[in-house]
Structure formats: C-alpha cells, structure tokens
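User: For a reading group we're discussing how well predicted structures match intuition. Take Alpha/Beta hydrolase protein. Before you show the prediction, I'll give you the sequence so everyone sees exactly what went in.
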Amino acid sequence: MGDNYRDYSKRTPHVDRSVHPDAAHESGGNTRGVDGEKNWQDMSSGDLKRAAEDQHDRPLGTFVGEEGVKEREGDEYLGGSTAFGGAWAEREQAVNADSGDIGRAAQAAPPAQSRPQPTTFAAPAAEPSFRYEPEKQAPRDFFSKPSDLGYDANDRSFVHELPRPPYPTLTFYRRCMLAGFQLGSFIGTTLAFFLIVGVAVVSAGIKKVNPFHKSPPRARVDKEFEARVSGERFSARAAYYAEYWGYKCEDVDIETEDGFILRLHHLTSPKHEKPGYPVILQHGILSNSVTFMVNEERSLAFWLLEQGYDVYVSNIRTNFGMPHRTYSNSDPRYYAWGVKEIAMYDLPAIVDYPAYIGHSQGCGTMYIALSRGVRPDLGNKLACFISLAPAVYAGPALRKFPFSLMRKFAKSRKVWNLVFGVREFIPIISILQRYLPAWLFGHFANVVFQFVFGFHDHNWLKRQIPKFFRSVAVANSAELLLYMGVLSVENCAFDTTTTEPWFPPSMPPLAIFYGTLDTLVLGKPLIERIRSHEPHVRLVKAVALENYEHQDPLWAHTAHKECYPGILEVLVATQNGYPARA
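Assistant: Thanks. Here is the predicted 3D structure of Alpha/Beta hydrolase protein, as structure tokens, for the group to look at:
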C-alpha cells in the first residue's frame, strides 16, 4: 500500500469519543468554529488546507482501511461502543425512559433470522449494541401540533439565503435580450471550459513525468476481477444496468408542489418475493441516479437489493429532461432553482418513512431540509439519514482554480447570471457527453475532474472510468451551481457564527461516512459541530474511510467491503423503530 498507508487493524480497540455525547472537544487545526478564535466563514485557503490535512492525519469516527476490514472485529469496526455506544444507550435509557424519544432506548437485539443478511460480498453484520424500541416511539400523527413532533413551524433558518429576483413576463423584446445574453454566456463559458481542459491536460502530463510527484497509493485489486470483461455497455440508462444484472427497474414519476416532475427508479430483485424495507438513494451535484449503478454488481443500489431492501434511486428536477407542469425547457424559470428548492419541494415529494442515503449534495440538501426553519417535519418521516461525503463544510479544493474565479462571481448574482446565464450550467459539457464516444469522453472527463475537483482514481478500476462518467457531468441549472460558489465563499452551508443548534429534535438518527482524503468537502468538522452544538442530533455512527476520496464511497472497488457493511448495520438498527411498509 505504500508509505502513506496507515494500518489501523492492529490498534487496540478503543471507545470512539467523537460520537460520545459527553466527550471533551479535542479538535485539531482551525476547525473549532464558534468555539475557537477563527470562524469557518473567515477561514483562508491555507486554513482549509490544514483542516483537510488534519482530517486525514487525525480522523474522527471508526477507522476503516483496506487491510483492516478482514482483521478488525467488535468495537473496532462493526457494532460495539464505537459504532452505537452501548454505554451511552444504557445511560440514555434511564434518562429518557418516559420521554418517548426515538433512538435513545436500548433493548435486546432481535433474532438474526428476522434481519436481512448480507449474501454476496460481506460477512453478516455484527449485532448492534442497541436498537430502537417501537414502544418508546412518540406518536407520529401529522395532525398533531408541530411542537409535539419536535419542531417549530415558524422557526428561524440558519441556511445561507440566496434571495431570487422576480422573473418578469417574457415579452418579445425580453426574449431577444435573453437569447443574446445566453449566446454570449455560451461562447464565453465554452472558451473558458476549453482553456481549463488545456490546463488540466498539461497539468496531468507534468505530474506523469515529474519524478517527485506523489499520488495516493493504488489500492490492491483482485487481478481476475480487474481483467475480466463484464460485457456491460457504456450506457446512460438506469434500466439497462439493472436489467443487465438481473433486477427489475420501474420508472416512477412524481410531481412536486411547485410543478416539477421527478423521475425515480424503483429497483426490485426476483430473489425476494416480498418487498423489503424501503431505502432512497439520492445523488450528488452534476450527477444523476445512474451513479449508484455503474460499479457493476458491487454498486450500492444492487448490493442493497441483495440484502433484501426495497430500493428507490431518485433524481433532482430536470434530470433526464423531465418536464415542468407549466414551463418549457426554454423558459428561464425552468432552471430557476437551487438547493433550497430541492430541500423544500423535491425531498418532501419522495420520502415517506424510508431510510435515506445521500451522497455529496444529496446529503447537503437533506441537511438543509431537516434544519430549523426549512422542512424539519421531514425528520418525522425518515427512519434514518445516512450521509456519504456530506457537502456541508467546504474543503480546500473549492479555493483552487477554477473555483477561485467562481467564488468571485458568486458574490454577486448579477455577475453570476451574466457569466453563466440563467439556464443550463456550461452547456458545452452535456453536448460533448452526448456526441463524443463514451470511452473518449470518460477518460477526457476524468482528467478534467481530477484537475478541477482534486480527485484521484487510485481506488477505481481503470476499465470502469468511461462508464462512471456517463452519470457525471450531467446538465444542471446555473442556479444550482451557485450553491458551490456560495459554499466556497462561506465555507459552510449553514451559519457557523451562531451557537444555536441548526437542527430540531425531529432530526432522525444520523450516520456519517467520509473519506480521509476528500478535499472537496470535509466530514470531520461536521462531526465536531454535531458533537459540540447539536444536542438534538443522534449520531449513531461516524466512519472515517481510510484513503477514500469524494466519489470513492460509491465507486471504489473495495467499497462493498469497507463502506457498505457499515451502511447495512445502520439500516438494520434503525428500521424497526418506524412503521413497516404497507
């Protein structure tokens, strides 16, 4: 694994104080937020770089490394005090015995045969050290007062607001002006894009020939699995991948309150006659639902099907060209939405007592939705919230070129709209994806994304790279990408200057999985914030994935061993505290 790999498998099992409610706050670097001298919203690029290094050198949560998976047991990996805090559960049971608080009471684990068991790639998950008691659950009558359900309907929000200007009636003159501005934006962003491509190619070439450049060590692979030819095409359709691996895919269209039609893929396995517990998978920015299905049979969506779950893979608005009830795709109002609209309208349209697993922006939007003053009622409709590489705290990659330019543009909405237009963000990307051969676009996009986002492909199989980028770099609105610009400016999706909790008591049980090499967004500061300032958040699992980067929880060829078993344990431990699917 190289000199940079640190083997945690031989460490003495320890109690993980990062998720313990009584733990002392022992953070490193300048990540202290309201507790320290420097606030996240004032941090420089150097501060963010040191925070990313601290995340790698001193990660919080259960450590999961490639070799340690086979050797680590009990407290050190699945279950035990590091994962669910048995001592915490016993103490909280005494305190909350009569409160009806969800997720606080301990009880004996149910028989093993009553739980879905891993069948393909993992050994059966260890017993959780506590489970949720349905008898202790508060009534979930949605005609009750909001205060009875753990939130205030008129509460203030701590999300950074982006006031949207009103869109006037499109007269002929305004349509002509809009077309002119869009044409200018298209030409300008296309030229800038190819400039970035040139810089990325030159940078990649220099790294190849530079004998002093050190890349993360490549993870060891199964030679036979790496060399095999699966027969898959480089498709952009979810149904193709599902049917290829023997599953059924049904498209479900849902309309949001503001008129957008969302496309969900309902995946089922012929191995299981009865539908299992529902799980929703939500993708990240510049991506779509297919990103959960391109890692062959080791894809997270298919792995969950093998465990007996009922899997729904969702999309945000306008993905796959889905329409609006009123606006055509030439109307700027079709693209006039961002993360707040996804949180306010898209997520409420798709959740109804499932477990929710989000990646990147798919986590960020749910954190926003569950926060005070947005849609905290959603917390009463989720069994649990599992966040993979959560996009809440910005990493140092968002301060480098070209995000350093986007950061300047994001300070003024007028400048942003003038540069990127009011429709699709850099449309030349989707044009190239549509017309270039998949293998060519995939390798070309890999070079560009490594330069722009600071990714590496050391945990990916080379032959899968063209397929990965069939589900990435999809068309998104320029308004949505403004979120990345604002995240670069503020360094956090929420106001970090306040000591008030961001989340209400209705927040569902939470699990966080993050890569120690992720420089796009940082997971460790979020864990520290929850530990020190969020008394209503029940952080049931925190996992630091050793040598993992932003996309690796989904695309790493070892994810089925290092990441998915922890996800399974959270699902097993939380699903019995909520209503079963009818």
